[in-house]
Amino acid sequence: MQTLYNKKLQLMPDKLAQLSMNVKCTKGSMSDIARTPEPPYYAVIFSSHRTEGDNGYGEMADRMLELAARQPGFLGVESVREGLGITVSYWDSLESISEWKRNTEHREAQRLGRKKWYSNFRVRVAKIEREYGI
Amino acid sequence: MQTLYNKKLQLMPDKLAQLSMNVKCTKGSMSDIARTPEPPYYAVIFSSHRTEGDNGYGEMADRMLELAARQPGFLGVESVREGLGITVSYWDSLESISEWKRNTEHREAQRLGRKKWYSNFRVRVAKIEREYGI
Asked: Largest CB tally within 10 Å, which of A13, A72, A88, B26?
């Protein structure tokens, strides 16, 4: 998936490629653990089950990642699907999350998500209070 | 449901097969979206990359799920791995999370996790402030 993703980036217009490269270099890919700042900051935990078939979902998901990464306050994202999908995006404030939720293209994606891409989902907005790791 | 669940567990702490069945019936399996109460409540977001080979990891993971589900304040868990692994466990309070972190068997699992099962991980403790879904 990483390889596919990179190949796709090479085909993009310069500006988008540059943007995506920034995402890759500074925020990591979705299969990396996000490099987030010292807490407190915020997370949106999106847990979902897909409907059958793609129906334009893959393209939308890529586009939403590009758009989210351009939003003020975006800190990173981690995403995995194996039946159940869990995507956690990280943000500097609740205001940044609200702005992203109101983004016009994202609103359309939310509408289509409810209508055809997800059979079930749950969105949880959380304040990260502490973190640690290896 | 919470009360019923806890009572059931107290009646048969040593019958792990039955316990697992109850976990599945009352809290959902890890591939379901957790049925959590009205916020506020807490989450532990565990993002990780595994080392090569199993080395006892699968057995430990099953055992930790059983143990976690018996902890006071456990609300549910969602877990997915596809290269990157994301496990989100939900708890009623920070105190319940601290108790779970101090559990003797869990401490040993944490030690082995750092030593041999994970090449990289990040633990984020978060307060769920709001949620919505389909």
From this structure: A88
Mean pLDDT in chain B? 84
In what helix (H) or strand (E) does residue B96 lie, and over which residues does it extend?
helix B94-102
pLDDT in tens, B96-111: 999 999 999 999 999 9
**Residue numbers in A near B49 (CB within 8 A):** 33
How far apart are the CA of A78 and the nearest CA of chain B, in angstroms? 8
Enumerate the domain spans of chain A.
27-128
B82 → chain A, closest CA residue: A80
Q: How many CA atoms lie within 13 A of A35 on its CB side?
A: 7
Q: SS3 of B12, please?
A: coil
Percent of the residues in chain B that have a pLDDT greater than 90, as a whole number: 76
For chain A, the residue count is 134
Report whether A133 contacts B122 (CB < 8 A): yes
- B23: pLDDT strictly greater than 60: no
CATH label, B2-128, candidates 3.30.70.100, 3.40.50.11740, 3.50.50.60, 2.40.30.100: 3.30.70.100
The CATH class of A27-128 is: alpha beta
